[in-house]
Write a structure and sequence with these properties.
The chain has eleven helices and twelve strands. The chain is α/β, with parallel strands linked by helices. The protein folds into three domains: about 200 residues; about 100 residues, Beta Barrel (Elongation Factor Tu (Ef-tu), domain 3); about 130 residues, Rossmann fold (3-Layer(aba) Sandwich). The protein binds flavin-adenine dinucleotide. Flavin-adenine dinucleotide binds next to strand 4 and strand 5.
């Protein structure tokens, strides 16, 4: 956590917002309905507030993300879904177990509207969870899943809110009603902020393509410049080496389809930024066809993977495949600053002709006598004289200096390579607080 005090304040705020409906209901507890009904209502109320808070966690607010980091918030967002599911399913189940007459509320033909809204909300929540947990097995593309997830999330909260207000239990007092009105207003504001105001700001601060140069392994490096640098004020656009941004091409900044890419250029030259993008199946396959002058929208910078946020007497950059991009950004920045601290770049690839940013690495080697580069090739050609195989504990033990525990480490690769490297570094006595990782697979 970057600032523990601010972090603690956000955590306390989160808990208070989650429990507020419960606390307010206790002001005028209605014992007449009995413990189990009140417990069921409590579970429903807290579940609903937590669902509203899921929007805040996913909203990429600079204030919250700046403290915890986008990857931590995403993991927390997922973990909270488990608690939300338990509370929201417990809400009706407690009633059904306590008094089977409540089962009649499941009859969508005869049940009152307030119950129908509840049933719809719980069914939609089930669909949201199933499509998120089993997205790949259901063969849902990321784009379809993202649109579905957004629409379902809004519908779930709206139908649940209508259910609560129609029942009128523990929402009939002015302060109780006020609470749900404030919650609803904040919920709507987050939606307007994320989906309307921020995209409009991005439209004003749009970038344009300067050039596209091909890279090995089906990747391309895109160079962008701001259409109007003044839109970022006197300081101009700034990012920390190693950070990433969400980008989108085309005319419409209001779409939800943005993709995260690490800057692969120096933070000392923010007027022209570069992204190196490897073609997958969707958006990334269109990047190579971009033309100079094409419009690009950029939401960022984000992320904590930066040597400027993790100072040390030297740096080790460990990557595989396209995971080399944030490392190029950090090394190019150190080179531009003339920083002479010792650096190691250890890169894994399948073939020696698939090394993404090979030219940039060679140029950095020229510029930085303090840089040691090690390429590990898992399926090398007969001519290859470098490391043969994957990045392993043996390779790291051989390459890293004796005072390796004092250095700062930056990792970006596939999950398998990252897990191997993190275990190997721990075995080699590197403190986990010196190891900083970025995983490209978010969902
Ligand atoms: C912090 C971060 C930095 C990254 N930096 C780079 C980089 O420098 N260069 C690079 O080539 N790739 C990078 N990636 C990966 C890149 O975002 C995905 O490869 C890209 O979004 C795939 O788009 P597609 O439409 O071609 O994907 P598809 O082929 O449709 O999907 C492939 C996979 O990419 C992921 N993905 C797809 N769309 C999105 C999205 N909108 N948001 C998040 N993930 C998505 C999903 O896990 C999906 O399974 C980074 C990812 C993250 C999280």
């Amino acid at each position: 956590m970057r600032s523990p005090i601010r972090g603690a304040m956000w955590v306390i705020g989160y808990i208070l917002i989650a429990l507020a409906p419960l606390i307010l209901s206790l002001v005028q507890l209605d014992p007449g309905r009995g413990f189990w009904v009140n417990l069921s209502v409590a579970a429903g109320f807290v579940g609903l507030s937590l669902m509203g808070l899921q929007f805040l966690l996913a909203a990429r607010s600079v204030q919250v993300t700046g403290v915890f980091g986008p990857d931590v918030l995403l993991r927390f967002h997922r973990q909270m879904t488990v608690l939300i599911a338990v509370l929201i399913f417990a809400h009706p189940i407690i009633l059904f177990v306590w008094d089977s007459r409540f089962l009649a509320l499941l009859n969508v033909v005869t049940a009152p509207a307030r119950a129908k809204f509840a049933v719809v909300s719980v069914l939609l929540l089930t669909v949201l969870i199933v499509t998120s947990v089993w997205r790949r097995r259901l063969r849902l593309s990321y784009q379809v899943w993202q649109a579905l997830h957004t629409v379902l999330a809004v519908l779930i909260v709206v139908t649940a809110l209508v259910h609560v207000l129609m029942i009128g239990y523990y929402v009939d007092q002015p302060w109780e009603r006020a609470l749900w009105i404030v919650y609803s207003a904040v919920f709507i504001w987050i939606g307007v902020w994320v989906r309307v105001i921020r995209p409009a700001l991005r439209w004003r601060r749009r970038w344009r393509v300067v050039s596209v140069r091909p890279q090995p392994a089906g990747a391309s490096t895109v160079t962008l410049e701001l259409v109007d640098p003044a839109t970022y004020g006197a300081d101009g656009f700034r990012f920390d080496a190693g950070q990433y941004a969400w980008i989108r091409t085309g005319a419409n900044p209001f779409s939800i389809d943005y993709h995260p890419f690490s800057f692969s250029s120096s933070a000392e030259r923010p007027d022209r930024v570069e992204f190196t993008i490897k073609a997958e199946h969707g958006f990334t396959t269109t990047v190579g066809e971009l033309e100079p002058g094409d419009t690009v929208y950029l939401d960022g910078p984000w992320g904590h993977l930066s040597m400027d946020r993790n100072e040390g007497p030297g740096f080790v950059f460990l990557a595989a495949g396209v995971g080399v991009t944030p490392m190029i950004s950090m090394l190019a920045t150190l080179a531009d600053r003339g920083d002479t601290r010792p650096c190691w770049l250890i890169v894994g690839n399948r073939h020696e002709d698939e090394i993404i940013c090979a030219d940039e690495i060679a140029e950095l080697q020229q510029r930085m006598p303090n840089l040691t580069v090690v390429h590990a090739i898992s399926r090398p050609g007969p001519e290859w004289t470098g490391v043969r195989g994957h990045i392993s504990a043996e390779v790291l033990d051989e390459v890293l200096p004796h005072d390796r525990a004092r250095l700062q480490y930056f990792l970006c690769a596939s999950d398998r390579v990252m897990d191997t490297a993190q275990t190997a570094l721990a075995d080699l006595g590197v403190p986990p607080t010196h190891v900083h990782a970025e995983r490209f697979a978010m969902a």
